[in-house]
Structures are given as C-alpha cells and as structure tokens.
Amino acid sequence: MNKKVYKTLEYNKILTMLSSYAACDETKKRCLSLEPITDLYEIRHLQTTTADALSRLYKDSICVSGTQSQAKKCISQHLCLKICYSDKYR
C-alpha cells in the first residue's frame, strides 16, 4: 500500500491507539510497526490463530474474577510476557 492510502485511512492513528494497550515496550514497538496484509488466505489464517489463542487465554486465565477490563489487562500482560520471553530466547 502506498503512503497516501495510509494517510487517508489514518493508519498511524489506529496503530497508536493499538499500541496504547500494549503492556511492555517490545509489544508497543511491534504494534507501531504493523503493516496491512492483503492476502485473503493469510488474513483468515491469522484471524483463526488469534481466535484460538484468545479462547485458550480466556479458558486458562487466572483472572477468573474482577471486571472485564481487569481480565483484559491480565491477558495483555500475559501476552507481553510471552512475546518478550520468546524474543529473548530466539
């Protein structure tokens, strides 16, 4: 995609909003460096992968009590730890 499309869609604003939910700096950097995917099969695969991961996190989460935002924060921190840990030992 060209830069004009990014500007029209306010893509950078979307990435900034997304990164504000990141629990650590590494995750924030990843959010800000995301680029759109145009391959339909890859999009569907990634959506399925994300849905599967979230269902496992909700199922196995230790955040069984509290508000929905507290549960989301707990899951966000859990994901951040997994991402940072996996990057450190690649």
Explain this structure to me?
With 90 residues, this protein is mostly helical. Helix content is 72%, strand content 0%. The two termini are 30 Å apart. The C terminus is likely disordered.
Give the helix proportion (percent range): over 70%
Instruction: Please outline the major beta sheet.
Output: none
| Uncertain runs | 83-90
Shape: flat
Report the end-to-end length measured between terminal Cα atoms: 30 Å
How many β-strand runs?
0
Structural class computed from helices and strand pairing: mainly alpha
Summarize this entry quickly.
This protein is mainly alpha-helical.
Q: How do the strands and helices of this protein lay out in sequence?
A:
Blueprint: H1 3-8, H2 11-19, H3 25-32, H4 40-60, H5 68-88
Helix pairs in contact: 2-3
List keywords for this structure.
single chain, 90 residues, mainly alpha, 5 helices, 72% helix, 0% strand, disordered C terminus
